[in-house]
Design a protein that fits this description.
The chain has 98 residues and is an alpha/beta fold. The protein contains 5 helices and 4 strands. Helix content is 43%, strand content 20%.
């Protein structure tokens, strides 16, 4: 019986990436060779995580409840990060504590 090959996303966009599960997922994807957009409200933590993970990351201070800001941020992603393969919307999970 054939098995499905694992798909490694080239670009992952993670909201809520400044702490907890989001930061852990960012570390995992970067270690696996993906480029990762680190999005969240705490710019200082995003910058620190991006520094730790290197050039495969793009920190993006963003409040996902501001639709215009989200649309603008996505439209202005640099070419290396623009073709998002996977969106992990963890901001709401972090905000609600669930």
């Amino acid at each position: 019986m054939p098995t499905a090959a694992a798909h490694q996303p080239q670009v992952v966009f993670i909201t809520g990436a400044s702490a907890g599960f989001g930061a852990a997922m960012a570390r995992r994807f970067v270690a696996s060779g993906s480029r990762v957009v680190l999005a969240g409200r705490r710019g200082d933590r995003l910058a620190a995580l991006a520094t730790a993970l290197g050039e495969a990351t793009l920190p993006l201070t963003l409040d996902v409840t501001d639709r215009a800001a989200v649309e603008s941020a996505v439209a202005s992603l640099p070419a290396d990060f623009a073709a998002v393969d996977l969106l992990m919307d963890l901001e709401i999970i972090n905000r609600n504590g669930k």
